[in-house]
């Protein structure tokens, strides 16, 4: 059987400057992976590279660019393949988040979610998976979706559009790539305490509202650390697990939503009603006129 360990494996990680991507890069380096790293944040990427190397890890190549730019991904892939040949492991971790009700979301919000969270990984897949197939050495593809790619959380329409899409891509490729001995892994994190928590764009809401801050603090108390999530990802890859959960509540919630449709729908309606209380007064009044 193919060795699923990361030692000596040429491993691409996107989003490596911070959060889950950075934690996964550090954890993979400790396991002996030969890293290829990227992120849109050049300074953060340089800091990750420095930390990996200072700890004795190997970074074969690193470059900052936006994965939503197909030409940039293609140019990066060309350099990587000239230097290292086909990779062994590809991890799509980079992502952004915007929440809001449909009347508050603008076209640019929808487009950015899809461009970065869905088309970004697709650009990576287009450029790196076919050479892995041609090399006939097997490998692994990791796509980080979200619990919002499994369930219908309030205000997550644009974000879920991208994350449900990535889930669909992963489910198809799981079977498509099996004949090439390339395992596919779909990561569905719940609450994770990363810098994204403080920067997520909640459209139409005042983030300084004490109620919003209380929810953010509650989220952070409940959240897993990026290190915990990174360790879950690497364990899942080593075990050949397709759906990689990072916490029990999401695993249970997804099972519950599939088994008990009516209670799930009731809970989602109540959650939406609760979130509506965070809207400005005039928007709450418009919402209350429905029906």
Structure explained in plain terms:
The chain has helices spanning 19-30, 42-54, 70-84, 107-135, 157-176, 196-199, 210-222, 226-239, 248-259, 261-276, 281-288; strands spanning 10-14, 34-39, 58-64, 89-92, 98-99, 139-144, 182-188, 192-193, 201-202, 224-225, 243-245. It is α/β, with parallel strands linked by helices and 291 residues long. The protein has a single domain (10-259), classed as Rossmann fold, CATH 3.40.50. Strands 3-2-1-4-6-7-11 form a 7-stranded parallel β-sheet, with helices on both faces. The mean pLDDT is 87.
Query: What order do the strands of the largest sheet run in, or round the barrel if closed?
Result: 3-2-1-4-6-7-11
Order of helices and strands: EHEHEHEEHEHEEHEHEHEHHH
Q: For the terminal residues, how far apart are their CA atoms?
A: 59 Å
How much helicity do the residues have?
A: 40-55%
Bulk shape:
globular
Instruction: Tell me the domain tally.
Output: 1
The CATH topology name reads Rossmann fold
Secondary structure class reads: alpha/beta
Quaternary status: single chain
CATH superfamily: NAD(P)-binding Rossmann-like Domain
Outline the low-pLDDT stretches: none
Instruction: Tell me how many strands there are.
Output: 11
**At the first level of CATH, what is the class?**
Alpha Beta
The whole-number mean of residue pLDDT values reads 87
Please indicate the percent range of residues in DSSP E strands (runs of 2 or more). 15-25%
Report the radius of gyration as a whole number of Å.
20 Å
CATH architecture: 3-Layer(aba) Sandwich
């Amino acid at each position: 059987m193919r060795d699923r360990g990361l030692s000596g494996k040429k491993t691409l990680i996107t989003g490596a400057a911070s959060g889950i991507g950075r934690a996964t890069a550090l954890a993979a380096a400790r396991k002996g992976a030969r890293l290829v790293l990227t992120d849109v944040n050049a300074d953060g990427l340089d800091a990750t590279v420095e930390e990996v190397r200072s700890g004795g890890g190997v970074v074969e190549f690193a470059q900052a660019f936006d994965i939503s730019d197909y030409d940039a991904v293609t140019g990066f892939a060309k350099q990587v393949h000239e230097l290292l040949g086909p990779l062994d492991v590809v991890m799509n971790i980079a992502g952004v988040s915007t929440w809001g009700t449909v009347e508050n979301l603008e076209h640019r919000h929808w487009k950015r979610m899809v461009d970065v969270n869905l088309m970004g990984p697709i650009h990576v897949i287009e450029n790196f998976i076919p050479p892995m197939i041609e090399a006939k050495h097997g490998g692994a593809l990791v796509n980080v979706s979200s619990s919002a790619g499994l369930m219908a959380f309030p205000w997550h329409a644009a974000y879920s559009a991208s994350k449900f899409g990535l889930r669909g891509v992963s489910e198809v490729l799981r079977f498509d790539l099996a004949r090439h001995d390339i395992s596919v892994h779909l990561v569905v994190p719940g609450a994770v305490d990363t810098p994204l928590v403080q920067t997520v764009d909640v459209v139409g809401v005042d983030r300084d509202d004490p109620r919003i801050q209380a929810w953010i603090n509650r989220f952070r108390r409940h959240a897993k650390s990026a290190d915990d999530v990174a360790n879950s990802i690497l364990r899942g890859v080593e075990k050949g697990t397709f759906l990689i959960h990072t916490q029990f509540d999401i695993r249970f919630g997804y099972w519950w939503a599939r088994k008990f449709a009516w209670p799930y729908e009731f809970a989602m309606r109540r959650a939406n009603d609760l979130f509506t209380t965070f809207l400005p007064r005039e928007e709450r009044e418009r919402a209350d006129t429905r029906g």
